[in-house]
Design goal:
Number of helices: 12
Order of helices and strands: EEHHHHHHHHHHHH
CATH topology of the largest domain: MetI-like fold
Largest sheet: 2 strands, antiparallel
Number of strands: 2
Strand content: under 5%
Helix content: over 70%
Length: 304
């Protein structure tokens, strides 16, 4: 017996009548809409699939590559991509595909830390500056201007020199270097929201300032900042990979994406895949995240 689903439809005879529609038909409609969406926006679908695969590699690398990334067979060193080794092997006979997959965990861990630091610190600074105004706004924005005046890479290198080497310390340095962008966006949104009618009404009825800030200003100002966080996620991957390439990340044999490229540069003339494969992984991840960020930004603008 076919399972039925009641849904409201409008008919000339009886508007709002409940008509029994097969559940299978509803599922076909959803599948059709999903297929049409995929056809209209194939780039977004491909980007989403790429990000999902990278997240799986970061949190469950054994699902995609069950081998040990630090164990190799010397007899198989510098093998080109083929059936036995999908992305070839390195100078110690280690499988490049396995190392790229397991390297996603280190690179994504550092990226999440960097974006979280920038989002929290920058968001708090921008929120306070835009809501309190006065001398607090002036003082915080001058600090932000100083951060913006220093190139992000140089600021990251200076912070790493003070903090020391390591994946987490590199992530913190990259996050602090990105604080200014989040602070400026949050401040501009807070200035826009604080003059809204519902915020003025909350003040008129005697709502405490921190309640107004938490319940009204922050939720409505967070949208563009979260979109920026997705965009900064891709930029943080590039920054962390660059610093790892320079040797400031996790020490060998940790398979960070940047360190994999650094290891393969000495063999670039005859073994191009050592640099190309992790480089492709970085480029694909960054481009996919940027594509999703543009889609989220478009949806947010339409919602406003």
């Amino acid at each position: 017996m076919t399972e039925l689903l009641l849904r409201e439809v409008t008919t000339p005879e009886d508007p709002g009548a409940a008509v029994a529609v097969p559940r299978a038909a509803t599922r076909r409609e959803k599948a059709t809409r999903a297929l049409r969406f995929a056809v209209r926006r194939p780039g977004l679908v491909l980007a989403s699939i790429t990000v999902i695969l990278v997240l799986i590699a970061a949190f469950a690398p054994s699902v995609l590559a069950s081998g040990d990334p630090n164990v190799g067979v010397v007899a198989d060193k510098l093998r080109p991509p083929g059936a036995g080794h999908l992305l070839g092997t390195d100078y110690l006979g280690r499988d490049v595909y396995t190392r790229v997959v397991h390297g996603a965990a280190l690179s994504l861990q550092a990226t999440v830390i960097a974006v979280a630091v920038a989002l929290v610190v920058g968001g708090v600074l921008g929120l306070l500056a835009g809501f309190v105004r006065g001398w607090v706004d002036e003082a915080l924005m001058r600090v932000v201007d100083v951060l913006l005046a220093i190139p992000a890479v140089l600021l990251s290198l200076a912070l790493i020199t003070a903090l020391g080497y390591g994946t987490v310390k590199v992530a913190i340095a990259v996050g602090i270097a990105s604080v200014a962008n989040f602070a400026r966006v949050m401040r501009s949104e807070t200035l826009r929201i604080r003059t809204s009618t519902y915020v003025e009404a909350a003040r008129a009825v005697g709502t405490r300032w921190y309640v107004t800030l938490w319940r009204h200003v922050l939720p409505n100002a967070a949208g563009p900042v979260l979109v920026l966080a997705v965009l900064e996620f891709g930029l943080a991957i590039l920054a962390i990979s660059s610093l790892s390439f320079l040797g400031y990340g996790a020490p060998p044999p940790a398979p960070e994406w940047g360190s994999l490229i650094a290891e393969g540069r000495n063999y670039l003339a005859g073994s191009w895949w050592l640099c190309a494969m992790p480089g492709i992984a970085i480029a694909a991840t960054v481009l996919s995240v940027n594509r999703i960020s543009r889609a989220l930004d478009g949806e947010w603008r339409r919602a406003r």
